[in-house]
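Incident log, support desk, overnight shift.

02:14 A customer reports that sequence design results differ from what the structure should imply. Their input is reproduced verbatim below. On-call engineer (initials T.W.) acknowledged and began investigating.
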């Protein structure tokens, strides 16, 4: 009982010492074997110290807090818990994407997605979607002991079921993860529902896109017949430092998508968010010193369809042909 501490759980709730498996998940039976009581586990869940990810499966909240996107990380744990439950289902669609580390545009976090491997047996349950679909050669791989659809099959499944922005986002992410373009193309040869959208998206896919926000930005530009900018364009500032920008056109225009993840990644240890904003403002001023027109937009601009009108206005001023 030395590990358990006081029965009230007060000491334990402040200590990240829960026994975890190789996936970082706390199994109820393992916790009990390490001296924790049912009462302590329930108290930890009630206090938000442990988060339920499956039946008798938990993740320390402190682990979730370390992620760039807490929702994506929590969903990944839910999928891992499902994949390691009895039966070893094959994760697919958004669930396989979570294991592969593909960041998606508005993914379905309400359900765990699995595929049967045969052209039958599909169904929808409150927390799980079962897809009836056969597997081709190489469609199922093992990732850290978990059975999931391959990178290409996962991206194709999501693209076929989604709209153009979602399809472009997942193909961008797959290419960035070193998926072969030919492997993706091969899965779109057969005519079926959604294949036209998926083929169009693959034609515009670019592995240099670093986030769903950047992919959705480009999808809106494509749909509006705007010039497609180059991605991850680098400029040498007058102080000799290098600035890498999300979008660039003809050495005249620079576009930046500002997402929360970008700012979190830009934060130095112990730094306040305000310092990141100030540093970005200085960087932006130095880009303007080079004669560049710099414009930024955020998620709200994409959701409200504000980015395209702004770009049209700037392109007209700069003489960039639309």
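02:41 Re-run completed on a clean worker. Output:
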């Amino acid at each position: 009982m030395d590990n358990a501490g006081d029965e009230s759980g007060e000491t334990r709730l402040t200590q990240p010492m829960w026994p975890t498996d190789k996936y970082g998940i706390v199994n109820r039976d393992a916790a009990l074997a390490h001296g924790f009581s049912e009462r302590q586990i329930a108290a930890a869940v009630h206090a938000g110290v442990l988060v339920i990810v499956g039946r008798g499966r938990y993740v320390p909240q402190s682990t979730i807090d370390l992620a760039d996107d807490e929702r994506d990380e929590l969903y990944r744990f839910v999928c891992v818990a499902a994949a390691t439950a009895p039966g070893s289902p094959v994760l697919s669609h958004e669930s396989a994407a979570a294991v592969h580390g593909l960041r998606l545009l508005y993914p379905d976090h309400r359900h765990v997605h699995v595929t049967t491997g045969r052209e039958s047996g599909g169904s929808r349950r409150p927390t799980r979607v079962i897809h009836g679909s056969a597997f081709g050669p190489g469609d199922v791989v093992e990732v850290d002991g978990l059975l999931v659809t391959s990178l290409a099959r996962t991206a194709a499944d999501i693209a076929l079921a989604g709209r153009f922005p979602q399809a472009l986002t997942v193909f961008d992410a797959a290419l960035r993860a070193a998926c072969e373009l030919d492997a993706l193309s091969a899965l779109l040869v057969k005519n079926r529902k959604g294949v036209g959208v998926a083929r169009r998206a693959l034609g515009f896919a670019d592995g240099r896109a670093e986030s769903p926000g950047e992919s959705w930005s480009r999808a809106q530009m494509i749909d509006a017949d705007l010039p497609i900018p180059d991605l991850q364009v680098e400029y040498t500032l007058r102080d000799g430092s290098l600035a890498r920008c999300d979008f660039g056109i003809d050495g005249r225009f620079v576009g930046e998508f500002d997402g929360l993840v970008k700012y979190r990644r830009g934060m130095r240890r112990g730094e306040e968010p305000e310092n990141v904003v100030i540093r970005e403002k200085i960087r932006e001023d130095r880009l303007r010193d080079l004669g560049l027109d710099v414009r930024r937009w955020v998620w709200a601009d994409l959701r409200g369809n504000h980015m395209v009108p702004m770009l049209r206005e700037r392109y007209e001023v700069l003489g960039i042909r639309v």
